[in-house]
From TrEMBL:
Entry keyword Zinc-finger: no
Protein species of origin: Paraflavitalea soli
Pfam families reported in the protein's UniProt record: His_kinase
Descriptive protein name: Histidine kinase
GO CC annotation terms, alphabetical: membrane
């Protein structure tokens, strides 16, 4: 449900003006003897509702800029009340005072009952405006969140499918099984480890779409298992260094993020003992980001679709996280991916 703010501004003001005129000013035509009654009541209605509507709208939108989303509804409403109720008191008081000071109606109107009635009406109109704006915003955000959740689920399945598709391609299975057969002939212990890690990897692939985010600890455990398979195959042609592994359980990242970057590095670069590939994973907890880098030695006629990174970017955007950053030089390729503290994610709209 997308709302046109300009339309709401105009229509809302006209509705409030009409309500005030009908319920609080129209009766004056029947008992007030004044040839200028229409001009006076119309002018008062327009200026009074304008003094309520525009400042209230301004405060609501400013609070919304600072505290966006459904999770901050309570804070926005409390702060709006703290700011706007005193303002409503001043508007109501000022209106009665000016009417009396200018002798607008030809009699004294500065009585306690008049002050209390007008101030109460002003506060009521402010309350109604805040309620309308917040209600429309709530349902708009709820609808947006629902749509994003569906898109995120679709992306999860797509990323899982793309990753799994790569792993079940004949050459991958052939290489894995061929490596396993070789290990069984030479080292039964490593063969058993290889089998366990291979099973763990496929299980992780199949379960990856069940969560929007997963702990860095689990993701790194999976990547190390994935690297174990690659290392068994490439031996000294492939090396991995991980830096900054402390407190990994406190942070979350989209599933398969690290695996995708590791897979891309191996897929697009030469990996041999004579030209080894060095991959570094660095976690920067202060900046809530991780960087995966590798020495650049591209294969000839390398074809890159970039589909995996496109999906990752979409997923990060839907989760409200910063975009990835790609840096490439003559000899080095780096991708920086953000992650989030688990307590920050739990307190957000998700």
């Amino acid at each position: 449900m997308k709302v046109n703010e300009k339309k709401l501004r105009v229509v809302g003001y006209l509705v409030m003006t009409g309500m005030f005129f009908i319920f609080f000013m129209l009766e004056m035509f029947f008992w007030w003897k004044d040839e200028n009654i229409l001009l006076k009541t119309a002018t008062l209605t327009v200026l009074y509702t304008l003094a309520i509507w525009e400042p209230t709208r301004f405060i609501i939108l400013q609070l919304r800029k600072k505290w966006q989303g459904i999770a901050w509804v309570k804070r926005r409403v409390v702060l709006a009340a703290a700011i706007l109720l005193p303002y409503a008191f001043l508007v109501g008081f000022g209106r009665v005072y000016l009417e009396d000071y200018t002798n607008m109606w030809g009699i004294r109107v500065a009585h306690i009952s008049v002050y209390s009635n007008i101030i109460g009406i002003t506060m009521l109109f402010v309350f109604l405006q805040v309620a309308v704006y917040e209600s429309i915003y709530f349902f708009s955000e709820w609808d947006k969140t629902k749509t994003e959740a569906e898109e995120l689920k679709r992306l999860n399945f797509q990323i899982q499918f793309d990753s799994l598709k790569v792993q079940v391609q004949p050459h991958f299975l052939f290489n894995s099984l061929n490596t396993l057969i070789g290990l069984m002939e030479m080292d039964t212990y490593r063969a058993r480890l290889f089998t366990e890690e291979l099973a763990y990897i496929y299980r992780y692939f199949l379960q990856a779409n069940e969560q929007e985010l997963i702990s860095l600890e689990e993701e790194l455990r999976f990547v190390k298992a994935y690297f174990f398979l690659l290392k068994t195959r490439y031996a000294e042609g492939l090396h991995l260094q991980v830096m900054g592994e402390e407190n990994m359980h406190l942070y979350l990242v989209p599933p398969l993020s690290l695996q995708l970057l590791l897979e891309n590095a191996v897929k697009h670069n030469i990996v041999t003992q004579s030209k080894p590939l060095y991959i570094d994973i660095k976690f920067e907890h202060d900046h809530q980001q991780m960087t995966v880098s590798n020495n650049l030695q591209r294969k000839k006629n390398d074809i890159r679709s970039g589909k995996g990174l496109v999906h990752m970017r979409k997923k990060l955007r839907l989760l409200g996280l910063p975009d990835i950053v790609i840096n490439e030089s003559k000899n080095l390729f780096m991708v920086t991916v953000p992650f989030i503290k688990s307590n920050e994610y739990e307190s957000s709209d998700h």
